[in-house]
Write a structure and sequence with these properties.
Two copies of one chain form a homodimer. Chain A has one domain: TIM Barrel (Alpha-Beta Barrel). Chain A is globular. The first copy, chain A, has 15 helices and 13 strands. In chain A, the strands form three sheets. Chain A has an eight-stranded parallel β-barrel, surrounded by eight helices. A two-stranded antiparallel sheet of chain A has the order 5-6. The first copy, chain A, is an alpha/beta fold. The C terminus of chain A is likely disordered. In chain A, helix 5 packs parallel to helix 6.
């Protein structure tokens, strides 16, 4: 039995990750704004002993809502409602550093961590798009600026979380001392992007810091991850590419004084599951047949920066050199995929419909488990970001059929051992930057008394 | 039986509104960050058929945390967790317009409204304090600027909520039409404070607009309320003062084309309840004896703008003319109270310890009900903002003993009749500004066909 444990995150996305999910009989599109849908998903994922669940986000209505069930709930408000109906599973929300204030973000995640008993995680993103910028009265920021702001944003947020030391709340009713104010620290941050005095209004989160997650795979993104992130979600199409990414990212940690096991790499996988391979392929085909090409074309144009029309469908992807300020790594992935496999635009659309560039694997539970095992033991992954094509059914299939197979193989836990998200991921709880070593603390007390 | 129905809101505040609540044996200060405490309170309030519960907020740690149990959870994250364990009660969160972006706020309240099935309310505040400004890298804004920003903020937020018309989501799987994009509108707001394109990422909230609540009683505050608010929380010490405020505010509605019953006035009341009057007075005395004068002095100095020390305790409030940019109406209320009743600073502190300027009434359930009835039928209130001195016990006392008395008198509902917060408050659901009148719509269709 291997000593390494696989980590599994349920990536929740409306009624499914496949862009035609909402048209398939296994979904109900009216569930998109129904909290009970997400509560059901959270309970299913917890029943499967998954480490965490995760909600993506964007600050503008992106994609054509005429042809897809998009436009759902805001992640942080939703996660609190999921915390209330679960006990163990980690809860990861995407929040952008671009159009937010670090004081608000620190506070909301501290609250969610208290509310969930130490199960909060923050997927740190920057906002690249023009549509997002226009909802905040500004123009899209340059790539490097976004990451410079994100880095300072992180400094402020972690500084605010550290401001209340563990044990700052004393609660001594008799003496009338609620908090030891010597252990609550202002931040007095004064930087290029932010001036924040602090302290936070909320005491230290149960996890010290809610888990820090990151998903950008550009050069700046990887460097940011190596410095700050504890888990990374990534889109990888091939085992070779995933290995390269994994080694690259882990190799960057040392320059920030970090070890390889302080950051987990979780590639996305959309498992299309059938009792037989034929059944899985049939479901894949059903979804493919429901795709609306206009929707995918617009998405692909947006991803690649290449203006595409129906006339391009049966040709290869035009060879237009483009530079976008947006999600650079996803653009590269998509163009590489088209070139490597010599795909027409129509074929490429069908490859992207399942997971927007993430890997799609159709097969039996054993075949899915084989793929997971091969990547996990092959130096490509510490775990996976599970992206069911249809929800809730696809998550149920995964939990009821793939998870047991992984458990039988000794790759995945059969019970939660920890209570916090950090404990599930095997990551240490950070000490406050103000915490004094215990020995020094005792000495001071001795001198003072 | 009167046809007017009383409206009752449970104002939740840590382990109680009395500043010494955390030291009293009826509370447990460790509950301050425990979501189960607030879930228990929400269930108690719902058992009492109260219209709503409400969370105050500030964007800085205000008051001396050494001597009081302050520094709790963030309201919006907390309310989602309360929505998950309740079915009917309204959920009102305080969010400032000063250091927020309207796109975020519109989205979060739209989400909370979806999550709660139409039970969200927004207590709109502006942030006056220096401490808050310093958490956002700026200096405190001038009073008038705060309200100008708030007014434009409201325009943007309500505009975003209106952007998705009712029925914009079609969900026609066969035709492949998820939404009728002709009924989803960009906002294209371009004002002095904000430029926001829209549309929102979230479809129209179940209530159309979450309920708009306001609590400032300055001249600007009252004018803002008359224009936008549907419920107003206010601190009133005397029946005469409350009547004057009530008539003043209702009188302002006409100039915005509104009727008197489109805005409810809810003065605060902290009920100290005993089976006998003696028992109530004993509880009041117990709390008073636990007060830490240094805490109250600092609060009073902050409220009035007058620097006070222990030496001032047994003198009248110094007659220093002061102007603050902060909460002007609360300052006036406190100074008026001291002058009117000729109080020493120590006496004033004891009068403020229970409700920070809100009215405190100690007595039997019948006596509390008498006070409520007198104000309700005397042109001073449409309902009350209930501020229990200790929590959860003080809310239980109110729900189990005062509410039944109000029900017997025919003043308060015995069952919820509606499902949404607006329905509890008897307020109409606003139509989207883009909604076409049904008749005109039919005509257009006829002409077009």
């Amino acid at each position: 039995m291997p000593t390494r444990t696989l980590h599994l995150n349920a990536f929740l996305m409306g009624v499914g990750h496949h862009e035609a999910a909402w048209r398939h009989p296994r979904t109900e599109p009216a569930r998109l704004n129904d909290v009970r849908h997400y509560q059901q998903l959270a309970r299913i994922a917890e029943r499967g002993r998954l480490d965490s669940l995760f909600l993506a986000d964007g600050l503008a209505l992106q994609g054509d809502v005429r042809h897809n069930a998009i436009g759902g709930l805001e992640p942080l408000t939703l996660l609190s409602a999921l915390a209330a109906v679960t006990d163990r599973i980690g809860l990861i929300a995407t929040v952008s550093t671009t159009y937010n204030e670090p004081f608000h973000v620190a506070r909301k995640f501290a609250s969610l961590d208290h509310i969930s008993g130490g199960r909060a995680g923050w997927n740190i993103v920057t906002s690249a798009g023009e549509a997002e910028a226009h909802n905040f009265g500004t123009e899209r920021p340059a790539h490097a600026d976004r990451y410079a702001r994100a880095t300072e944003f992180l400094e402020v947020v972690t500084g605010l979380w550290d401001g209340w030391e563990d044990g700052a709340v004393v609660g001594d009713r008799r003496a009338g001392v609620y908090a030891d104010t010597g252990r609550i620290h202002a931040l007095d941050h004064d930087g290029a992007h932010f001036r924040v005095r602090g302290p936070l209004t909320t005491s230290r989160p149960p996890q010290g810091h809610p888990l820090l997650v990151q998903a950008g795979s550009s050069e700046d993104g990887k460097e940011f991850a190596a410095r700050h992130a504890e888990a990374v979600f990534t889109a990888q199409q091939t085992l070779a590419g995933a290995r390269e990414f994994y080694a690259d990212l882990k190799g960057r940690l040392a320059r920030y004084g970090r070890h390889g096991d302080e950051l987990l790499v979780l590639p996305g996988i959309s498992p299309i599951i059938g009792s037989t391979e034929r059944e899985a392929l049939r479901l894949e085909k059903e979804l493919e047949d429901l795709v609306i090409p206009a929707y995918g074309l617009a998405q692909l144009s947006n991803m690649t920066g290449i203006e595409l029309s129906h006339d391009d469908l049966d040709r290869p992807l035009p060879d237009v050199p483009v530079e976008t300020e947006g999600a650079q790594s996803r653009r590269k992935l998509v163009i590489d995929l088209a070139r490597r496999e010599n795909l027409t635009v129509r074929q490429l659309l069908s490859r992207l419909a399942g997971g927007r560039g993430h890997r799609v694997v159709a097969g039996t539970p054993e075949q899915i488990a084989d793929e997971i095992q091969a990547w996990f033991t092959g130096g490509a992954a510490d775990g996976f970001n599970i992206m069911p094509p249809v929800l809730p059914g696809g998550l149920e299939d995964f939990v009821d059929h793939v998870v047991p197979e992984l458990q039988i193989r000794g790759l995945f836990r059969t019970e939660y051992e920890g209570r916090t998200l950090r404990e599930h991921y095997g990551l240490a709880r950070p000490a406050s930057r103000h915490a004094r070593p215990a020995a020094a603390g005792r000495l001071e007390t001795a001198v003072a008394s």
